[in-house]
Every structure is written in structure tokens, then in C-alpha cells.
Specification:
Blueprint (H helix, E strand, L loop, with lengths): L3 H5 L4 H4 L22 H13 L16 H16 L1
Length: 84
């Protein structure tokens, strides 16, 4: 999986690869904290990540609270693409 702008930056990509599909509105990256991380650190990290405004026109811009249904849909769609 690659961002379309990155893919298009090298013309030889078109000859060497095949586009299986495109996905808009990707979920934000998942941030996982160690289970033994201090709660104060995790809370501060989450507050800092969520305080940045999200720009829907930018790749991975800002973070949102974890929404399982968004990630489930993404992984389901990805599995279908790899089955093609």
C-alpha cells in the first residue's frame, strides 16, 4: 500500500506495479502504548495527539480516538484487495 502522490512521483512505478484499488478516508495511524507505561504518560500523549486539528485533505493528518469499526472496515477491504 502506498500513497498515490508517492506512487505517481516515479513514472516507472506504472510499469512495475498494478493498482488493486484506492482507499480514501484512511483511518489515522494507531498508537499503542506499553501496558506498563505510566498512566500519566499515556494520558499526556493521548491529549497531545488528539489536540492537533485533523485536515481531511492531508495524509495522516491529526489523530482521532480509536474507532474499531473504521479499522475493521479498512482491514476487511485490504483483505479483499489481496485476494484479487
Amino acid at each position: 500500500m502506498v500513497d498515490a502522490d508517492t506512487y505517481a512521483s516515479l513514472p516507472e512505478n506504472a510499469a512495475k506495479t498494478r493498482v488493486l484499488g484506492e482507499v480514501d478516508q484512511l483511518p489515522t495511524p494507531v498508537v499503542i502504548a506499553r501496558s506498563d507505561a505510566p498512566a500519566s504518560f499515556v494520558d499526556e500523549l493521548k491529549q497531545n495527539l488528539l489536540s492537533e486539528p485533523r485536515d481531511e485533505d492531508e495524509l495522516f493528518s491529526g489523530f482521532i480516538d480509536y474507532e474499531e469499526t473504521i479499522d475493521e472496515r479498512f482491514f476487511s477491504d485490504a483483505a479483499l484487495a489481496f485476494a484479487a
